[in-house]
Fold:
Amino acid sequence: MERTHRTWKLIAFLSALCLLSSGCWRPASAMEMKAVHFTYYVHDTLVPPGVTTVVVAGANASLTGPSALGDISVFDSVLRKTASNASAQVGHSSGQLVSLNDPAEKLIILVQDITISGYSGTISASGRFNFSTLSWELGVSSGTASFRGAMGYLRPTIVALDPVFPVVKYEANLILPKFWN
Ligand SMILES: *[C@@H]1O[C@H](CO)[C@@H](O)[C@H](O)[C@H]1NC(C)=O
Ligand SMILES: *[C@@H]1O[C@H](CO)[C@@H](O)[C@H](O)[C@H]1NC(C)=O
Ligand SMILES: *[C@@H]1O[C@H](CO)[C@@H](O)[C@H](O)[C@H]1NC(C)=O
Structure:
């Protein structure tokens, strides 16, 4: 087949170019990684004005009452530097929280956009956790801009279970490939 033959020749030629320039392909083992740790605080407002979390599904669902499998809340929370709601805003945490069979267990899927000293971008994370333990882990699956190719985990810890202004501390433990950054 003439066409197939030509395609293979082209691939061989491109591969040779890549090897010569040594920039097209790098083995994963040669990829340099850097560990990055920082903390920030998620601030929610559960009553108007400026509500940051709403219930979108669930027959009897409420933000603070008992939960049942399938209750879903959607949030667009504010990220701040400290546990004080007067501290500087550093981004947003948006996503959804789903209640599971055990009322203590939740599924969370979120994207946080964060701008701190030296870094700006989004972090994508998700997890299944026991809400009554007050601290848990979320696996980081990816990121954008300064956080491209991010791996690692986030550790949320409940600081204040205030019925109107709950605050959760987030500790980011990331591994970033220098290749992208
Ligand atoms: C919602 O609450 C009502 C009244 O308490 C109850 O009869 C009903 O079974 C509840 N529905 C669900 C899905 O929990
Ligand atoms: C900050 O939190 C306090 C309670 O801790 C509340 O009284 C105040 O209204 C909050 N301010 C804003 C802007 O949310
Ligand atoms: C959730 O955590 C609480 C408090 O540690 C514990 O009593 C409960 O058994 C846990 N539930 C599950 C499903 O792990």
Q: What stands out?
A: The longest strand covers residues 105-116. The radius of gyration is 22 Å.
